[in-house]
Write a structure and sequence with these properties.
By secondary structure, the protein is mainly α. It has 12 helices and 2 strands; from the N terminus they run H-H-H-H-E-H-H-H-H-E-H-H-H-H. Helix 2 runs antiparallel to helix 5 and helix 3 runs antiparallel to helix 4.
């Protein structure tokens, strides 16, 4: 008697599976624009190379939001996001700056671009280690790599504006300014300087309304006058962290270590002292008197 086996029809992907895949789709879109930026920079299309990095930054923000809202944060997604960010906000901005300015600046000018990519990789590796298993914090430790990458990306569109030509171009310090900017961004990414995250949007609290105002300001500025708005915004964010860290550092007063005889006086108890300790204390007092005289 032959056994007849039934073939079950293929199962359609559940809504849960579709939701889990969505954040990775945004992440791969981030990679797509990062790679397209590299190709555009190689072909000399610096304006669109910069905008593609901005598009990658928008998708990078969206994949995290979608993962949190759908409760689909996975270790795989976090690792994939970090690998993609090294390309989109490390390699792509570095090559954009290299083809834009550093390719004709000397034989070893590419080393500066390499150091920037190293800083991005270290920044993301540290972020993965520090954030593993810990609750979310409203502050970043070190400047986020998407912010640093997008600041470099929108430099070229800003350099074509009337503001730049009227205020900065006549100084003829473009190369030196880019060197300082890339070094600062690289150092800030691997530093312990705190940078705030974008505030959450809401309508039931002052903080939520403030977050809504911040998002609307960035959205309107980025849509209406992106060439004039985005690069100064990136510089303002960078300077905010430096200024805040400097002010907090000046407000902290280092404690002075007490002198040796003061430490002895703090722990000396006549009721518990031995004859030997009396002799040592007397010798210390005589020595102090000699110094005073």
């Amino acid at each position: 008697m032959e056994l007849i086996t039934r073939r079950e029809p293929p199962r359609r992907p559940s809504m849960r599976q579709v939701v889990v895949i969505m954040p990775s789709t945004f992440t791969l879109g981030n990679l797509f624009f990062g790679f397209w930026s590299i190709v555009s920079a190689f072909n000399g299309n610096f304006r669109w190379a910069g905008w593609f990095i901005v598009f990658a930054g928008i998708l990078d923000m969206l994949d995290g939001r979608v993962a949190r809202l759908s409760n689909t944060n996975t270790r795989f997604g976090a690792e994939l996001d970090s690998l993609v960010d090294v390309i989109s906000f490390g390699v792509a901005p570095a090559l954009l700056m290299y083809f834009l300015d550093f390719s004709g600046a000397g034989r070893f000018a590419w080393v500066l671009c390499y150091f920037y990519v190293v800083a991005v990789a270290l920044r993301l590796a540290r972020f993965n280690v520090l954030s593993a298993g810990k609750p979310a914090s409203p502050w970043f430790t070190g400047m986020p790599s998407p912010s640093a990458g997008m600041t470099l990306a929108v430099y070229y569109p800003f350099s074509q504006t009337e503001w730049y030509r009227a205020s900065l171009a006549y100084l003829d310090l473009q190369h030196e300014g880019l060197v300082v900017l890339m070094l600062l961004l690289a150092l800030l990414m691997v530093s312990n300087v705190k940078y705030p995250k974008l505030p959450r949007i809401g309508l039931h609290s002052a903080r939520g309304i403030f977050g809504l105002a911040v998002h609307l300001t960035i959205l309107l500025g980025g849509l209406l006058v992106p060439e004039y708005f985005l690069f100064p915004l990136g510089l303002t964010y960078m300077i905010f962290g430096i200024t805040r860290a400097t002010v907090l550092g000046l407000m902290e007063r280092p404690e002075q270590e007490p002198l040796a005889e003061e430490r002895v006086a703090d722990v000396y108890d006549p009721a518990l002292a031995t004859p030997a300790s009396h002799e040592r204390r007397g010798a210390l007092g005589d020595r102090r008197q000699e110094i005073d005289e």
